[in-house]
Amino acid sequence: MLTFDHVHFYYKKGQPVIENMSFTIEAGEFVSIVGANGCGKSTIAKLMVGLLLPKEGSVTFKNLDTSNPADLHQIHEQIGLVFQNPEDQFITTTVMDEIVFGLENIRVPREEIRSRLDFAIQAVQMDDYLESMPHQLSGGQKQRVAIAAIVAMRPQIIIFDEATSMLDSQGRVQVVSIMQELHRQGMTIIHITHHMEEALAAERILLIHKGRLEFDGDPLVFFETMPVADYQLELPFAVRLHTIFHQGEPLTRDWKEMIRLQWSIN
Ligand SMILES: Nc1ncnc2c1ncn2[C@@H]1O[C@H](COP(=O)(O)OP(=O)(O)OP(=O)(O)O)[C@@H](O)[C@H]1O
Ligand SMILES: [Mg+2]
After folding, report:
1. Residue 186 maps to which CATH number?
2. Which long-range contacts (C-beta less than 8 Å, at least 24 apart) are formed by 237-240?
3. Distance, CA 44 to ligand 1 centroid (Å)?
4. Which region among 14-18, 41-45, 55-59, 232-236 has the lowest average model confidence (pLDDT)?
5. Who surrounds ion ligand 2 at CB < 5 A?
6. Which of 8, 18, 33, 42 for mutating ligand 1's site (highest number of atoms within 8 Å of CB)?
């Protein structure tokens, strides 16, 4: 559905940032993108939504191509991007307006706006804050409002670019739970993160190393087989514990389900 086909990208000629990258993310997947600082993750997110264009190769969403200016409008409607700092996204003075503004912008009929607003604000459990000023909310609340504004647009894919990095552990759990709930409802989730506990919540991990796709597959296989420290990543706490108590035993499916349960409890 969302395809990188031999994508090359650079900001400065002669200094490649993304090299020969190919992968496809299918509808309904929950994918985590991980890798060291500066490896190219945010660049990939911007290539996905057409904020940046490949120098070679193509980025396509269904039959839409980010290099085709006529397709960009539809791509923006169907792929939402949540940034690390939610304030970058706020433009209005109340939480309600923040969500309604985006809907008016894409010409959602008046009678539909209310139901979309209700759905999105409930999804992030911020119903009590509709009249609040976005800038006066806590970091975690701001991030939830930013997510609600994107959810209300009903995109098919939401990309979270380190959307949890400013939050405390409780705030991170809340946001990852929202991702899981949206995923259960059929939305495609792409979660860029430095927190390996969060990467365990995904069904598939893409590891980026110096602009190349180094691993693409199951999180369990990833943590079992990849020397994560070589990529400036840490093993999740639960995996480290398991390794201490069950030396030499392979990580099991059951065990993985147990870890995933951690993310399915609200
Ligand atoms: N606007 C820009 N102009 C020039 N170089 C840039 C620009 N944005 C990013 N870069 C460079 O491109 C490379 C990849 O950056 P990118 O932001 O994609 O990394 P990242 O994986 O998201 O890192 P982080 O984990 O720190 O967010 C880095 O070397 C960075 O310095
Ligand atoms: Mg980044």
Report:
1. 3.40.50.300
2. 237/197, 238/197, 238/200, 238/262, 239/196, 239/200
3. 10
4. 232-236
5. 41-42
6. 42
Counting every residue written for the chain, the total comes to 266
DSSP 19: E
Ligand 1 pocket test, pick from 7, 8, 21, 43 with the greatest ligand atom count within 8 Å of Cβ, gives 43
Range from 35-39, 116-120, 161-165 carrying the lowest mean pLDDT: 161-165
pLDDT in tens, 90-112: 888 899 999 999 899 888 999 99
Strands 56-61 and 64-65, by their bridges, are antiparallel
The pLDDT score that the predictor gives to residue 236 is 82
- pLDDT number for residue 266: 40
For ligand 1, which residues put their CB under 6 angstroms from it? 11, 17, 35, 37-43
Query: Residue 20's domain spans which residues?
Result: 2-264
pLDDT (tens digit per residue) in 239-248:
777 777 776 6
Q: How many angstroms is it from 123 CA to the middle of ligand 1?
A: 32
Report yes or no: 168 and 111 within 8 Å, Cβ to Cβ.
Answer: no
Q: What is the predicted pLDDT for the residue at 263?
A: 56
Prediction pTM value: 0.89
Question: Number of folded domains in the chain?
Answer: 1
